[in-house]
C-alpha cells in the first residue's frame, strides 16, 4: 500500500502541476501573461559581472538544489536506528551547490564550487545537525594558446581521465542521478570525486583530451581504519601519485570546454557524436593479507571505452535523442568489491544472516569491484507542444547497469526507468525514477530484487 501511495504521490505531483497549468488556460488574459513570463524566462541573463567593458573578462555565479522524495524497498535485514525497516520514506537534499567562476584575464580562468551532498534524516553525525558544506572544486587554469588548444591548471578539481561520467555536469543529467560507479574511487582516496591535481586539457581539431596527475588522499582520512584482508582494499601504507588520461573524437559539433564538467543531455541544442577512451592508474594503491600473514600490495588500473550521442531529430517539434554506451574494465586487485547506497535512508549493515554483506542495508548494491561493467542510457525529448505551447517538455529515459565482478557468482543488473518534466529546461525540472536492483545471499548469488521510487525537484540558476 505504501508503495502504491508513493507511486501515486509522484504521479500526482506531476499531474497536478499539469492540471493547474491546463486550468489556467481558461482565462485568455492569464494565458497571455504566463506565456510572456515564460518566454522572458527562457532569455534570462546569467548572474554575471563583467570585469571589462567588452565582457571578455567576467565573473559568474550559479546555484543549484536537488531535493529527493523517496520510497525505498529495503534490502533484507535493514534497520533504521536499530529497528527493522522493510520500507522507508525519506526527504533529502541530494545536492546543494553554488559555483563561482570566471575569465579573470585574457588567459586565466578561476573556478570554485561549494556545497553539500546526501543530506537526509539519517546522514547526521552525532552531536552535529549542521553537516558542513565543503569546497568541491577550487582550481585555476591558464590558456597557453589563444584558443582551447592547450590549457594547464591545478588545484582541487574533478578533472579526471576515466570517462565523461567521472566528471559529470550534474545540473544537465539525463537520468535522475549520475552513474556513481564511474567515479571509481569516490570518497575513498578523493573528496567526492575531486582530487588535488595538476592537469593539461584542450581541443585540437575534433579531438578533446585531458591528462592528469593527482595526489590521492590516504584512505584513513575518510574516517575508516584500513585493515588488510583476503580481498583487496585500499592500502593504508603506500602513497603514490595517480595518473589519468582521456581522449575523445567529436564527429559532429565539438562540446563546450569552459569547465572540466561534461554535459549529460543538451536537450537538442547541439548535435554531438563522439567516441572516447580513458584510463586511471596508481601504483600499490591496494593491499591484501596473504595466507602466511604477509601484506601484498596491488596496483590499480581502470580503463573505459564509450560512445555518446545527443542530437535534435525534428527542430520544429523540438524532439531530440540522447544515447550513451560505455564499457569499463576495473582492476583494483583480487576480489575487491564496494557496495554503495546513495544517500542511504537506513543503517548501512544488514542483520539478516542469509544475506551477503555485499548487499548492505537500505538501498545499497555492489557498485565497484574488480571485473567489468557495461552501462547505457537512452532518452527521448518529446514534442515541445505536447503539453501545450510554453508548458515545458517531457523526456522519458531508461538506463541499464550490468557488472561482472570476480567476487560474485552472478552479475549485478540494475535498471532505471524515469521521466523528466522540463518545466523550464534544466532550470526547473521535475523527475520521477524507478530503480530495480538485486541483493545477494551468502554464496554471493542473486537472491531477490528490490525497488526504489524517487521524485526529484531540481532548481538551478
Descriptors:
16-stranded antiparallel barrel, globular, Porin, 461 residues, disordered N terminus, signal, mainly beta
Number of helices: 2
Gap between N and C termini: 38 Å
Strand order of the largest sheet: 2-5-6-7-8-9-10-12-13-14-15-18-19-20-21-22
Largest sheet: 16 strands, antiparallel, barrel
Reported by name, the CATH topology is Porin
**What's the level 1 CATH class?**
Mainly Beta
Q: Give the H and E element order.
A: HHEEEEEEEEEEEEEEEEEEEEEE
Computed over alpha carbons, the radius of gyration is 23 Å
Query: What is the helix fraction of residues, given as a range?
Result: under 10%
Number of strands: 22
Can you tell me the CATH superfamily? Porin
Q: Can you tell me the number of structural domains?
A: 1
For the record, the CATH architecture stands as Beta Barrel
Quick overview:
This protein is mainly beta and 461 residues long. Helix content is 8%, strand content 49%. Keywords: Signal.
Question: Could you characterize the architecture of this molecule?
Answer:
Keywords: Signal. Residues 1-20 form the signal peptide. This is Porin. This protein is mainly beta and 461 residues long. It has one domain: Porin, CATH 2.40.160.10. It contains 2 helices and 22 strands. The strands form 3 sheets. It has a 16-stranded antiparallel β-barrel. A hairpin with a 4-residue loop joins strand 5 and strand 6. The radius of gyration is 23 Å and the shape is globular. The model is unreliable at 1-9 and 11-41 (pLDDT under 50).
Amino acid at each position: 500500500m505504501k508503495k502504491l501511495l508513493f507511486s501515486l504521490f509522484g504521479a500526482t505531483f506531476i499531474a497536478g502541476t499539469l492540471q493547474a497549468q491546463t486550468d489556467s488556460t481558461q482565462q485568455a488574459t492569464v494565458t497571455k501573461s504566463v506565456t510572456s513570463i515564460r518566454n522572458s524566462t527562457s532569455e534570462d541573463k546569467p548572474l554575471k559581472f563583467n570585469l571589462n567593458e567588452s565582457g571578455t573578462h567576467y565573473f559568474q555565479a550559479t546555484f543549484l538544489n536537488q531535493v529527493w522524495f523517496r520510497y525505498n524497498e529495503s534490502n533484507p535485514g535493514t534497520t533504521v536506528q536499530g529497528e527493522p525497516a522493510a520500507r522507508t520514506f525519506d526527504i533529502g537534499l541530494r545536492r546543494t551547490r553554488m559555483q563561482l567562476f570566471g575569465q579573470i584575464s585574457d588567459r586565466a580562468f578561476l573556478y570554485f564550487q561549494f556545497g553539500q551532498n546526501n543530506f537526509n534524516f539519517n546522514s547526521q553525525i552525532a552531536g552535529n545537525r549542521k553537516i558542513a558544506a565543503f569546497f568541491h572544486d577550487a582550481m585555476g587554469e591558464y590558456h597557453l594558446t589563444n584558443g582551447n588548444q592547450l590549457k594547464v591548471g591545478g588545484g582541487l578539481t574533478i578533472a579526471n581521465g576515466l570517462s565523461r561520467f567521472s566528471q559529470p555536469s550534474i545540473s544537465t543529467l539525463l537520468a535522475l542521478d549520475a552513474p556513481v560507479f564511474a567515479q571509481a574511487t569516490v570518497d575513498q582516496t578523493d573528496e567526492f570525486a575531486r582530487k588535488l591535481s595538476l592537469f593539461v586539457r584542450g581541443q585540437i581539431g575534433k579531438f578533446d583530451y585531458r591528462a592528469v596527475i593527482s595526489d590521492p588522499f590516504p584512505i584513513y582520512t575518510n574516517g575508516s581504519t584500513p585493515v588488510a584482508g583476503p580481498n583487496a582494499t585500499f592500502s593504508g601504507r603506500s602513497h603514490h601519485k595517480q595518473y589519468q588520461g582521456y581522449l575523445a573524437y567529436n564527429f559532429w559539433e565539438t562540446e563546450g570546454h569552459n569547465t572540466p564538467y561534461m554535459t549529460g543531455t543538451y536537450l537538442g541544442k547541439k548535435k554531438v557524436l563522439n567516441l572516447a577512451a580513458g584510463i586511471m592508474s596508481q601504483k600499490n594503491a591496494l593491499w591484501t593479507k596473504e595466507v602466511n600473514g604477509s601484506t601484498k600490495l596491488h596496483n590499480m588500473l581502470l580503463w573505459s571505452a564509450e560512445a555518446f550521442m545527443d542530437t535534435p531529430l525534428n527542430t520544429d517539434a523540438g524532439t531530440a535523442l540522447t544515447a550513451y554506451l560505455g564499457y569499463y574494465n576495473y582492476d583494483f586487485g583480487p576480489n575487491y568489491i564496494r557496495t554503495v547506497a546513495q544517500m542511504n535512508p537506513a543503517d548501512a549493515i544488514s542483520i539478516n544472516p542469509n544475506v551477503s554483506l555485499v548487499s548492505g542495508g537500505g538501498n545499497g548494491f555492489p557498485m565497484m569491484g574488480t571485473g567489468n561493467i557495461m552501462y547505457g542510457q537512452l532518452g527521448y525529448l518529446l514534442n515541445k507542444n505536447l503539453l501545450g505551447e510554453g508548458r515545458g517538455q517531457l523526456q522519458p529515459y531508461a538506463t541499464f547497469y550490468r557488472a561482472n565482478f570476480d567476487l560474485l557468482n552472478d552479475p549485478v543488473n540494475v535498471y532505471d526507468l524515469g521521466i523528466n518534466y522540463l518545466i523550464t529546461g534544466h532550470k526547473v525540472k521535475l523527475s520521477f525514477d524507478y530503480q530495480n536492483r538485486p541483493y545477494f545471499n551468502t554464496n554471493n548469488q542473486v537472491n531477490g530484487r528490490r525497488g526504489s521510487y524517487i521524485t526529484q525537484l531540481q532548481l538551478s540558476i
